[in-house]
Design a protein that fits this description.
2 copies of one chain form a homodimer. Chain A has a two-stranded antiparallel ribbon with strand order 1-2. In chain A, 37% of the residues are buried. In chain A, helix 1 (10-32) crosses helix 5, helix 2 crosses helix 5 (95-115) and helix 3 (53-60) packs across helix 4. Chain A has helices spanning 10-32, 36-47, 53-60, 64-76, 95-115, 121-140; strands at residues 80-83, 90-93. The model of chain A has no long low-confidence stretch (mean pLDDT 93). With 144 residues, chain A is mainly α. Chains A and B meet through helix 1, helix 2, helix 5 and helix 6 of A and helix 1, helix 2, helix 5 and helix 6 of B. Chain A binds a DNA duplex (24 and 24 nucleotides) through helix 4.
Chain lengths: 144, 144
DNA sequence: CCCATGTCAGTATTACTGACATTG
DNA sequence: CCAATGTCAGTAGTACTGACATGG
């Protein structure tokens, strides 16, 4: 019959973990003055300096319109700057953005560390690999 | 310094996996006429018949006001029924709701199965355990 | 010509906070 | 009295779809 058993469903466990992580991040990041979405974008821009808006959107799994709007806010906050015009616009952190991200990143790293407290190195690696594996597998058949 | 490296961050991998799963579920469930949130609530009500709205809210990690609103929609669709009054209201699936959930559940099970395609049983178990472990760990210190 | 991109606009979904009555 | 619950309202944050100009 292949139904979903809520207690052994990896999908449900995924949701639990994500919700808990998101709540923890939300709480800490709010103190720093960033939403989770803003933080994620800053992190990705820092990892790939000069990225385009469209690429950023793909990186955080939303439409380019959504990131476009988000970036507007980040620009007003002077956390990012856009270099280039027309179709060739590249995103970079401002010095202020880099500082803010550094602070946020440390806070998030602390949360992740606490979250992984009960897992040894080999389990962490296996978890990371498994998560990346299932994300890749699902992405293979994605319609959008 | 303990910063976040996007490529080895379990938090980011978690987000990737969750986004991919959510997108896949969203697509399939839409055909069945349910949102992901609605599906999740139905699944939880099925697993714990007679659950209260407040418990449901905790189970899906949102406010009781959010589930209250969601339940209104499910009632209009005749998928659930509420038994009891005042503070003692208990949620149950209607026959229609049970049928719809069964269909949705099979679709979601298929997605999960595809997603886990590359993982053997021992890895699946380890993944499940690790996810539940980190969710529990984070929940320990949650403010809300 | 085609496709990807940036961008403007409108809309919808969802969850949140605040507030209040009820009840064990 | 207190804490939890159900419930009504209002608000906000986020993402989506549609549409269009631009440029490689």
């Amino acid at each position: 019959m292949s139904q979903v058993d809520i207690d052994t469903s990896i999908g449900y466990a995924l949701k639990r973990a994500t919700s808990a992580l998101r709540a923890a991040m939300d709480e800490r990041l709010r103190e720093i003055g960033l939403t989770v979405s803003q933080y994620s974008s800053l992190e990705l821009i820092a990892a790939r300096p000069g990225v385009s808006n469209a690429d950023l959107a793909r990186g955080v799994f939303v439409s380019r319109q959504a990131t476009h709007q988000l970036l507007g806010g980040l620009r007003e906050l002077n956390l990012i700057e856009v270099i280039g015009e027309g179709r060739d616009q590249r995103l970079h952190l401002t010095p202020t953005g880099a500082r803010r991200l550094k602070e946020a990143s440390a806070a998030v790293a602390a949360i992740e560390e606490r979250m992984l407290d009960g897992l040894d190195q080999s389990r962490r690696k296996m978890l990371l690999d498994s998560l990346n594996d299932i994300a890749s597998t699902l992405a293979t058949h994605t319609t959008s």
